[in-house]
Amino acid sequence: xxTVNSPPRTATPNIGSIQKQYPRVLQPTRLVIxxxxxxxxxxxxxxxxxxxxxxxxxxxxxxxxxxxxxxxGGTVLGHVLWLFxxxxxxLMGWRWLREAMKQGRNxxxxxxxxxxxxxxxxxxxxxxxxxSLLADERVSVSVSLDGPPEIHNTYRSDGxxxxxxxxxxxxxxxxxxxxxxxxxYNWNRIxxxxxxxxxxxxxxxxxxxxxxxxxxxxxxxxHPEQIVTARQAFLALMVSSEGRFAEVNTAAFVLRFNGMQRxxxxxxxxxxxxxxxxxYLGIGPDGSIFPCGRANDLDRDRWRMGNVSRDFxxxxxCGVLRQFHTEGSRADCxxxxxxxxxxxxxxxxxxxxxxxxxxxxxxxxxxxxxxRDLSGVELNKLKDIACxxxxxxxxxxxxxxxxxxxxxxxxxxxxxxV
Length: 418
Prior knowledge:
By secondary structure, this protein is α/β, with parallel strands linked by helices. Helix content is 39%, strand content 12%. Strand 5 (176-182), helix 7 and strand 6 form a beta-alpha-beta unit.
């Protein structure tokens, strides 16, 4: 049975006092990836977080409240998306999550900032109690699913449990979407994967490519030709279904290729300016602060910027952030001939393995060349379908697209706090 620690009795920190020690670069914080536990109930072979057993230490309510006060007291914006991550965040139990979100509401009321919650989960622990709570709080849920159970279970496990969890979400009308991974066991089976998704009612899944980090460092890399084969299969399905089924990353690439939704000056996961520490922030189970959620999966001692519950040094935080962006630099991307429609590569993935950047670059060039081979009529049809897809996707359909370039639907405009 999960337990809930008593909320802290200390007074809510003064907004002004926090902002004085909150580095200016962090003040536009709008997305927090909060890894509430490193524990997990399954053992995925490609887990970038190297999640441990379910008994691994979990974030306390006191620490969570300190994290919320730290972020809400420091951001200059009027809203924050708070993403529960892990490990497996649902190991915290529905009582902990209920109390955490209650503490978040209390902090919002006292500091004049709104919070929208999201969760990334394997879905296997979702039951009636959890689904009911998520529905009441309008939590946006992303559930990891790589295809039918026989494909899903090659790198993951308990696909049946994931499907059961998804059905609980649907029954309770919880906003959700499927988040998959293109890997060695499904890149050449995309039509089969799509048929399964459609049969389960998941019409707009988002599939990222397997990158080498965490446990995935021991797996064979995907070749650019394999990745592009998968993307082309998704593209063909998008056209044949007239946009009724679409993989979100593929549709987003089509729009970027056509010169749409590109803002080079913005900071995010898929922009030339990385959003780590410039809008995004990672917080670990013990309250440690990192440039982003993925940096939390790397060498924590090296990339820790401070802690929400202890003395925080702006100088240390800025120094760590500067080093992170230096090592994962995208500077060479500025002069690249496909920069205008590339979705770039997360600096954390560049730091994790030297394999990631060359594969990503070659894949982008190859996919772009396939689109250039299309006729003007074919390309316009793709663009029209992709535009309609992005307008049709429910805006609370799971956690947001990673940044404005890939349609950050669940985040509001970056309005300043009142």
